[in-house]
């Protein structure tokens, strides 16, 4: 039983250390997806000046 508890505590420690990086990564990925979607949408509409992706 105590081994299980130790396993959980180490898992939460790793999660606690890496959680801020995970949040930053999720935000960066979301912004990148949003940017590429907007650029793709504008290119389909005929705005050819958004070719830098």
**What is the molecular shape?**
rod-shaped
Oligomer: single chain
Largest sheet: none
Strand content: under 5%
Mean pLDDT: 79
| Number of distinct helices | 1
Q: What order do the helices and strands follow? A: H
N- and C-termini, Cα separation: 53 Å
Strands, total number: 0
The secondary structure category is: mainly alpha
Q: What value does the Rg take, in angstroms? A: 20 Å
Helix content: over 70%
Low-confidence stretches: none
Description:
By secondary structure, this protein is mostly helical. The chain has a domain at 19-46. Helices cover 81% and strands 0% of the residues. The chain is built from one helix and no strands. It has one helix spanning 2-44. The longest helix has 43 residues, at 2-44. It is rod-shaped and about 60 Å long. It starts with a helix and ends in a 9-residue tail after the last helix. The mean pLDDT is 79.
